[in-house]
Amino acid sequence: MAGKSKGHFLGVAWWERRRFRELSQGRRAGFPCRRAKLLLKKKRYREQLLDRTENQISSLEAMVQSIEFTQIEMKVMEGLQVGNECLNKMHQVMSIEEVERILDETHEAVEYQRQIDELLAESFTQEDEEAILEELNAITQEQIELPEVPSEPLPDRNPEAPAKARSRQAELVAAS
Questions:
Q1: What sign does the dihedral 124-129-130-134 (CA atoms) show?
Q2: Where are the alpha helices (DSSP H) in the chain?
Q3: What keyword terms does UniProt attach to this protein (predicted)?
Q4: Which terminus of the chain is less hemmed in, N or C, by CB atoms within 10 Å?
């Protein structure tokens, strides 16, 4: 509809223009005034009809947009409701008291382990500590003692040597 005149919308713009031209020329030539009035009334009626139709179309478009927006709002509300139900179910499964109980148990377990560690640390005598350190030093020395690396450069590899070795091996196999 964009770019078209109102009269063209009903397909009568060219016809009306032609008739008005004829009327204006005919009026000069004695064409009856009553017919000219009638044609102007028809034109005015069509323009009013076109305006009402355009207003109704605008109202329908606004209504469609409103319905679409309401549908989106309903989907959002449904999503919020589902999320709320999930949160409530999770809260039923894990209450604040349950979380506090688990945290208390964890704290008690950590404290108990700390006490065990202290008892084990106190149960070793000075001789035990020295024996543990000597054993640790011995293990460390074993790991540090690596074989000596030759200081001379390695000989260049001869690419023909493996081929000769294979041919020599093939001769020995064939001879046996």
A1: positive
A2: 6-9, 13-28, 33-93, 96-123, 126-144, 160-175
A3: Endosome, Membrane, Protein transport, Transport
A4: C
